[in-house]
Amino acid sequence: MQETTTINNNFKSEEYFINMGPQHPATHGVLRLLLTIDGEIIKKVEPDLGYIHRSIEKMCERDSYQQIVHLTDRMDYLSSHINNEAVCLTVENALQLEIPERVKVVRTIIGELTRIASHCLWWGVMGMDVGALTTYFYGFRDREMINDIFEETCGARLTMNYNVPGGLMWDIHPNFVNRVKAFVKHFKTKIPEYDRLLTGNVIFQKRTKGVGVLSKEDAISFGASGPVGRGSGYSCDVRKYHPYSALDKVTFKESLQTAGDTFARYQVRIQEMWQSLSIVEQLIDNIPEGEHRVKTNAVIKLPKGEFYQKVETARGELGVYVISTGTKNPYRLKFRSPGFSNLSLLNHIAVGGKIGDLVATMATLDLVIPDIDR
Amino acid sequence: MSIIEMVLIALVYLGIFSVAGLFLVLLERRVAAWFQLRIGPNRVGFQGLLQTMADALKLVSKELTGTEKADKFLYNLAPYFVIITALMALGVIPFTKDFQAFDINIGIFFLIAISSIGVIGILLGGWASNNKFALIGAMRSGVQTISYELSVGLSLLTMILLTRSLQLSEIVEVQKNGWLIVQGHIPAIIAFMVFMIAGTAETNRAPFDMVEAESELGAGFHTEYSGMKFAYFFLAEFINMFLIAAIATTVFFGAWLSPFGITESIPWLGVFWFLLKTLILVFLMMWFRWTFPRLRVDQLLTLEWKYLLPINLVNIVIMAFVVWQNLIIQF
């Protein structure tokens, strides 16, 4: 800037760089954002990853298929059950195992409960990110009930490890059905409470409507999936298009919004909670009797070839791609995590907004950093 | 009044209100817990009454750390600006007829003037601590306070039309015929609402906590402060909240006057009534904080310049008309 001095030069605004994270309350974990800002307006967002990289994919090449399941808990820890399920389904499909109906139904119920739990946490944090601190505790109250059910079922609350290739680790607890029913009844009265507290709030709507708009075309080209894609009108629910487990036996609506802004993504998740509740309700009364697990070999060897399975986690499409050479370890295992694609569009939709918009937008992308940074 | 007497009064005020500020912090934590399905601090002392005392002791005993490249002088000066202005303003608040340190004839003006000095402390703190997040917070604070001061001033001015005096004791005197919010009816209620909104913004509390916007700026302007210097900022926020509530009580709800004069014969009960009314308003502000999401910085300015200010200006005209036509409701 070697211009000759003019009076205007004194008032010239200048872009500056600011480092948001890796220890920042809004990044929910160790995500670092390199922001270029002009005053309050965001000019560029560069996510910087690698702070929680554990090379899970490489570790998978070392482990047997039973062990890989445990690693997936540590990716997207908020939908750990669904991650487990993805790996188990891949292995089961490759081995062409006949899975008992009971297992399928229980997996689906717990998967949907996981989705609700994840969305509860997201809802709480979403409120917190736009400044309504109370939502956090409301979200956690209801998530706690689900976690208690999980704890009783499999002993763990977060990293569940309930799935094994071939079925479930244990049968469900005798209390399971009653507790899930109690939860469904409880939670049906709580989602309207969520709406009263946050959704209908004028300030919240002003903060979120028209902010971080993602068009349908961009959603597709960035590979957005899950509520992020569906908020832009991109119908991409894996549960609908490639039903797995017992999802082909239930009827549910894919929640779609067309606006593509932060509020649309918010609404998609709220509707998904309703849909998940309805799926749980349809299945909980008729869990078929039967085995909870089919016997597999102690050492699972996948046939030679490539296998792919995708599932819908709370964040979007999780793909598991396995290349097997016929040994007990995969030759290569790749996870297609929803968070990574969803994060990649952050720069696209946050530029031009304010710092507050960035935080609100990031909240609706619902990033779980260990999922992005495996 | 001799100098010694003044110093003694000052010390008593300092003591009372530092402790009162601590109890407000406790109150906020309990109220927040109540809104948030929690229990809140209940271990230290009876029902956690001594919790914030313990916190204050901890903060006093903590090491004062700061950034190396900070502008040391301004950095150290900033907290005092904030806390001193907050405490100074308390001097003119009429707790009862006799419990008022200074009854100056420009009481309201003094309050508005003093409460706007505090922002200098915030600006200094944010600027001097050599931290970008703190700087953004401080700049937001400047913008916010300058804007909302207009609404605070104008809404109080609306009420001055009724009282015909800036002196706080006379403002209370006028209300013996009915609290001003009743006397001034419609314009007074509008003025009260505007005052509460702008007052909340003045104290930098949610939903206007742009200054420290936790999820955006970490801790905002006091990011680099620790120990007692941080405590000053923290305490000042609560004393300022008390002040806004106290001004609202004085100007709209008859200060220490009891409802319908039920305890007129026992003057010292005025303190009770004053504190009761103030605490109800404080509770209202806490209610705001734990319910509403935060506004964005441009929406904050839109609210002030496009809505509150025009409403206020029209409201003054309405009030002038009410006073002119003598449409005041008096008992």
Automatic annotation (TrEMBL), chain A:
SUPFAM superfamilies: HydB/Nqo4-like. InterPro entries: NADH_Q_OxRdtase_suD, NDH1_su_D/H, NiFe-Hase_large. Residues 129-298, 300-374 form the NADH-quinone oxidoreductase subunit D domain. It comes from the Bacteria. It is found in: Cell membrane. It holds the Pfam family Complex1_49kDa. NDH-1 is composed of 14 different subunits. Subunits NuoB, C, D, E, F, and G constitute the peripheral sector of the complex. Belongs to the complex I 49 kDa subunit family. This is NADH-quinone oxidoreductase subunit D.
TrEMBL record, chain B:
It catalyses: a quinone + NADH + 5 H(+)(in) = a quinol + NAD(+) + 4 H(+)(out). Keywords: Cell membrane, Membrane, NAD, Oxidoreductase, Quinone, Translocase, Transmembrane, Transmembrane helix, Ubiquinone. It is an enzyme of class 7 (translocase). The keyword Cytoplasm does not apply. It is a multi-pass membrane protein. GO terms for molecular function: NADH dehydrogenase (quinone) (non-electrogenic) activity. The keyword Transmembrane helix applies. Its EC number is 7.1.1.-. The chain crosses the membrane at residues 7-27, 77-96, 108-128, 148-166, 178-201, 230-256, 268-288, 308-329. It is found in: Cell membrane; Membrane. Pfam families: NADHdh. NDH-1 shuttles electrons from NADH, via FMN and iron-sulfur (Fe-S) centers, to quinones in the respiratory chain. The immediate electron acceptor for the enzyme in this species is believed to be ubiquinone. Couples the redox reaction to proton translocation (for every two electrons transferred, four hydrogen ions are translocated across the cytoplasmic membrane), and thus conserves the redox energy in a proton gradient. This subunit may bind ubiquinone. NDH-1 is composed of 14 different subunits. Subunits NuoA, H, J, K, L, M, N constitute the membrane sector of the complex. Belongs to the complex I subunit 1 family. This is NADH-quinone oxidoreductase subunit H. It comes from Flavivirga aquimarina. The lineage of its organism: Bacteria, Pseudomonadati, Bacteroidota, Flavobacteriia, Flavobacteriales.
